[in-house]
Amino acid sequence: MTTTRRNFLGLTLLGLTTATVGCSTAAGAGVETKTLRYQGWAGDVTLPELAADLGHLGDLKLEWVGNTISGPQDIQSAATGQVDFGGAFNGAVVKLKAAGAPIRSVIGYYGSDEHAYAGFYTLEDSPIRTARDLLGKKVGMNTLGAHHEAMLGIYLKRAGLSPDEIKKVEPIVVPPVNTEQSVRQKQIEVGVLGGILRDKALEKGGVRKLFSDFDLLGPFTAGTYVFTEKFLRDNPGTTRTFVSGVAKAIEWSRTTPREQVVARKVEILTRRNRNEDPAALKYWKSTGVAQKGGKILDEELSIWVDWLAERGEITKDQVKLTDLYTNDYNELAR
Questions:
Q1: Would 182 disulfide with which of 88, 187, 214, 282, CB 3.0-4.6 Å?
Q2: What percent of the residues of the chain are helix, what percent strand, and what percent coil, each to the nearest 5?
Q3: DSSP code, position 58
Q4: DSSP labels for 210-237?
Q5: Do 183 and 223 belong together in one domain?
Q6: pLDDT interval class at 137 (50, 70, 90)
Q7: Which domain holds residue 328?
Q8: How far is CA 161 from CA 132, 237, 290, in A?
């Protein structure tokens, strides 16, 4: 399922009434769950999957329930109890929390640096050179109301476009695996490419970067994993094991030679038998997580509180930073 900007809050509000009565996260009073349901990403190995393979999750088991291409959909599923944890762009986390979802971020899991960034690409011979050239054009991205739409908005605003002009730029949903082809076939004028998909496109040539999130904001952690408040209350030990295990996987990825990280990811992906092609994993370079062990900083969420409030999507008094996240479960964040 792909969540659009139009239906995201509708889904959110619909799901909130079930968020506290979703699948129980504990087998009984005082007994913490040892199985965590989650959604994966096709053709990729998530940090929790890597942490489990490295042995950093102890006796916890991960139960894969399917794949997603949408961060907002993933955390919505966590809020309503369809999965136990989900991850998304921090702006989507703020938005869902402001709508009343009982969620809290516990660790950063992706970001942007000189190796891991999301770029907005057009054809090499495209006349698009500036933000103003995007008026009336289509920009393809994996989901709306999330990281990439936020970056597009920041880029357009910094270039001096008015709110009315910004509305003339059309962000549309295009599955990441189809984005490069959509740009080359001129179905869209600009497409967002990151990580392995970006590097594969650049290897082929014929595309040119207009801007990237790293160009706009420098290195930053962009997304966090969330649990519901109920899960955190019922399963503090499980949460600590999970968060600290993911934190160790982040640091393992940071300090281990790239070739070894890639080889481990390929091995994991091949072994799980989900009919995926592991070839793209050779392009992996970095998680992009800015802080040690995925520690969350105030500014990594406050920037999106301000951005959403400026857009009129929330009011600043709808959320408190102290309610949005905690580093208490992360042994590496101390």
A1: 187
A2: 45, 20, 35
A3: T
A4: EEEHHHHH-SEEEEEEEEEHHHHHH-HH
A5: no
A6: very high
A7: 5-113+219-333
A8: 7, 49, 30
Q: Residues 23, 129: one domain? A: no
Give the Cα separation of 307 and 76 in Å (integer). Answer: 21
Structure tokens, 222: 């962009």
Alpha helices, H only, the chain: 5-19, 47-53, 71-79, 90-98, 147-158, 163-166, 176-184, 195-204, 213-217, 229-234, 236-255, 258-271, 299-310, 321-324
Domains identified in the chain, total number: 2
3-class SS at 4?
Answer: coil
**Neighbour count for residue 10 (Cβ, 10 Å):** 12
pLDDT value, residue 69:
81
| Rounded CA separation 186/23 (Å) | 44
* Domain co-membership, 308 together with 291: yes
Answer whether residue 14 shows pLDDT above 60: no
**DSSP letters spanning 102-170:** -EEEEEEEEEE-SSS-EEEEEETT-S--SGGGGTT-EEEES-SSSHHHHHHHHHHHHTT--HHHHTTSE
- 96 and 190 housed in the same domain: no
Which residue, 186, 210, 194, is CA-closest to 134? 210
Strands 118-123 and 207-212: antiparallel
198-227 average pLDDT score: 95
Tell if the pTM clears 0.90, that is, is over it.
no
Listed residue (104, 106, 98) closest to 13, CA to CA: 98
Same domain, yes or no, for 139 and 78?
no
Look up residue 182 and give its two tokens: 């959509």
Predicted local confidence at residue 3, as pLDDT = 39
Query: CATH number, domain at 156?
Result: 3.40.190.10
Check whether residue 196 and residue 267 sit in a common domain. no
What DSSP state is assigned to residue 334?
-
Domain boundary among 217, 244, 268: 217
C-alpha distances out from residue 222 to 72, 93, 148, 216, 321, Å: 13, 11, 11, 13, 16
